Amino acid sequence: MRRAADYGRGDLSLALIVADAGWGATEADRAMDLAAGEFRGRTDWQGAIDGRFDHAGPIELVAAEAQGVADEVLAEALPRLAALRAETGARFVVAIDRGQIDAVAGTLLGERVELLCAPTLADRAAAFAIGLSAFSRDTLHDKDSDSESAQLRQLNEEVARISRVLSRLASEDKRPGGVGERSMSFNPPPAAPAASPPTAADIRKIIRGRRLRDQFFAEGLFEDPAWDMLLDLYAAELENAQVSVSSLCIAAAVAPTTALRWIGRMTDAGLFVRQADPFDRRRAFLGLSAEAREKIERYFTALRQSGLHPL
Length: 311
Prior knowledge:
Blueprint: E1 15-18, H1 23-34, E2 39-43, H2 45-50, E3 61-65, H3 71-88, E4 91-96, H4 101-108, E5 113-117, H5 121-133, H6 143-171, H7 200-212, H8 225-238, E6 243-244, H9 245-252, H10 256-268, E7 272-276, E8 284-288, H11 290-306
Parallel strand pairs: 1-2, 1-3, 3-4, 4-5
Antiparallel strand pairs: 6-8, 7-8
Helix pairs in contact: 1-5, 3-4, 6-11, 7-8, 8-9, 9-10
């Protein structure tokens, strides 16, 4: 099977839909029309289990309508879809219910996958257009996605930069404030007291403070899912607790689809790591990478040494 990248621009593109007959398939067809595309391949969920993905051209986009699909069917079909993704390099757009987040994310979470939780027609159409835009310049471009990607790239740099600046401020020698003769002797500044690391209770208090703002300002004004999820995973690590994908979506304090998008990007950026559930291979937990943990610890150390309060 050839990958989409193996075809020239003159080749006919292919969007494939995996859906049983019903409302979800109808909504997907309507959304694809709005995205100025067309499904040229179709299979139902039993076909996905059987691996019936035969087609005459490159697969650029796979739309999977999983809402309402039985858990046992998903358990058999998802590994097939993951294999198709690896084989073709296609982008995936998967419509799911809230209760399916952990099962689907455990197999398909990652780069080139858009998980839509209880999506509207507009959500589907936008995701299809964005997915196809990677191969066709005639479709829409995801400007919001570009903006979020830029924010994510800046996140690592900002945490490291703030830590360096605060560390320099904490250790900077105080200059004399009055006018007069300066002493010629050199007295090094006293060493900053060792800053005790934050406890899980400290981090949870910070999270509660961040959520408190939402009671006084318009909803969505302070959305910052990347930092909220980093804090939640750090607190969970201090508590020796495991965090499921669905739980982390709640901690992000944004719509589930937005949270899932950020989880995928944070994982791709090396800040989150997936941890297999030893009791259920279909599920996965999320944790901080060693790099993310080290940066968070440096950040809180710098804050404490400078007498500043985290937000």
